[in-house]
TrEMBL record:
It comes from Ascodesmis nigricans. GO terms for molecular function: cellulose 1,4-beta-cellobiosidase activity. InterPro entries: ConA-like_dom_sf (IPR013320), Glyco_hydro_7 (IPR001722), Glyco_hydro_7_sf (IPR037019). Residues 412-438 are annotated as: Disordered. Residues 1-17 form the signal peptide. CDD domains: GH7_CBH_EG. The keyword Hydrolase applies. This is Glucanase. The keyword Hydrolase applies.
């Protein structure tokens, strides 16, 4: 999961709460994106991004400076209960560039991995795209029968890093309208959820996640609480310069669902979760084409690229059932078709369909929770309800990102189909090493376009 490390006087700035502080004005960095129509006519929309509330400084009172959360523990005097935190604590506005390494220019967003600032350092970030003209609502995308296009530059991201662009079914207003304890809302980046049902969120449904809070053994500023925040997730892009994957994750619950116990799917109960945590991934290297993506590959990660993802329905309408998730790339003026599966026992698929998912899981000997929870049809249902765009950069304290760019799981031989996912060694990805060795890493996203199939890109 994502984590932020901010050391010094205001340790840490990653805590979250639901009142709004008055020490730092909240100014969302502006960014543009385009909506397109059939024929390729596109209209530029002026929007902005907002930092997730988990990164923000939480303090007692709206103008105070006493931390509600320090290191990786809550102050039990201020936060004696979930509701007490809501009454006692406020989250602050953010210095996006100076503290968090987040900057925009026109249609580009740059997320720096490590940012040194006057109080220490910040590691990683997560932001959401706002509705144009609004500081109080996230932009909602309905993806079925549409395509989503963006540019990516991952040239400064090595093993163990993930520059992610994805959609989750979080509430449009961050939960402010549904939960009286949430006074901050989307303006301050509240309401996050995903298919992993993360427990490290410090605020869920307007209450602090203080019950049973356990500090992390590897992250000095993170921990886990009793509750998780689950929702459907469409990973358009999880990538560094070595490997990339796009992955849908279905859930049996609609929207943000606060889980507890078995339904969260923790540890050995993974496949009892309300969400499919594994998803059905298409990673070109894992699917048998080891030269397609990477430095000097067919898709050359030394240079900027355009990534196109199409969501095909059974009847070619916005309300038809989702049947296929298709990928294209554009680089140096050339349209590059997605790689084809080159695995014995599998058809040469080049997109995500239910048939691909069934074959992949069978050949790789993986649990097929994606199909068990409804497959593309249920993924499409979440898309029809609407999803929020997330962009982030992070290192992985749980599995060191081996599931993306190395061999994983570690208890299977590398020769087994599906285990090898990239060229990174299994010793790579430890966050403390990534932070020290790749302090200058950054993810750049830009050129966002959304519209009917075939409207958002040109060779």
């Amino acid at each position: 999961m994502l984590s932020s490390v901010i050391l010094g006087l205001l340790l840490p700035l990653l805590s979250s709460a639901q009142l709004v502080g008055t020490n730092t004005p909240e100014q969302h960095p502006s960014i543009s994106f385009a909506t397109c129509s059939t024929g390729g006519s596109c209209t530029v929309q002026q929007s902005s991004v907002v930092l997730d509330s988990n990164w923000r400084w939480a303090h007692q009172g709206t103008s105070g400076s006493t931390n509600c959360y320090t290191g990786n523990a809550w102050d039990s005097n201020i936060c004696s209960s979930p509701s007490a935190c809501a009454s006692n604590c406020a989250i602050e506005g953010a210095d996006y560039s100076g503290t968090y390494g987040i900057s925009t220019s026109g249609g580009d967003l740059t997320l720096k991995f490590v940012t040194q600032h006057q109080y220490g350092k910040n590691v990683g970030s997560r932001v959401y795209l706002m509705q144009p003209g609004s500081n109080e609502k996230y932009q909602i995308f309905k993806l079925k029968n549409k395509e989503f296009t963006f540019d990516a530059d991952v040239s400064k991201m090595g093993c163990g890093l993930n520059g992610a662009l994805y959609f989750v079914e979080m509430p449009e207003d961050g939960g402010k309208g549904a939960f009286s304890g949430n006074k901050a809302g989307a303006k301050y980046g509240t309401g996050y959820c995903d298919a992993q049902c993360p427990h490290d969120l410090k605020w869920i449904n307007g209450e602090a996640n203080v019950l049973d809070w356990q500090p992390s053994a590897t992250d000095p500023n993170s921990g886990t609480g009793r509750y998780g925040a689950c929702c459907a997730e469409m990973d358009i892009w999880e990538a560094n310069s070595i490997a990339t994957a796009f992955t849908p994750h279905t859930c049996s619950k609609e929207g943000l669902y606060r889980c507890e116990g078995t339904e969260c799917g923790d540890g050995a109960e993974r496949y009892q979760s309300v969400c499919d945590k594994d998803g059905c991934d298409f990673n070109s290297y894992r699917m048998g084409n080891t030269s397609f993506y990477g430095p000097n590959g067919v898709v050359n990660t030394n240079a900027r690229m355009t990534v196109v993802t199409q969501f095909i329905t059974t009847d070619g309408t916005d309300t038809g059932a989702l049947k296929e998730i298709r990928r294209l790339y554009v680089q140096n003026g050339q349209v590059i078709q997605n790689s084809k599966v080159n695995i014995p026992g599998m058809t040469a698929y080049d997109s995500i369909t239910d048939e691909f998912c069934v074959d992949q899981k069978n050949v790789f000997q993986d649990n097929n929770a994606y199909i068990q929870k409804g497959g593309n049809k249920v993924m499409g249902d979440a898309m029809e309800r609407g999803m929020v765009l997330v962009m982030s950069i992070w290192a992985d304290h749980a599995a060191h990102m081996l599931w993306l760019d190395s061999s994983y799981p570690l208890d299977r031989p590398e020769s087994q189909p599906g285990v090898k996912r990239g060229t990174c060694p299994t010793s790579s990805g430890d966050p403390k090493d990534v932070e020290s060795q790749q302090a200058n890493a950054q993810a750049v996203f830009g050129g966002i376009k959304f519209g009917p199939i075939g409207s958002t890109f040109r060779a």
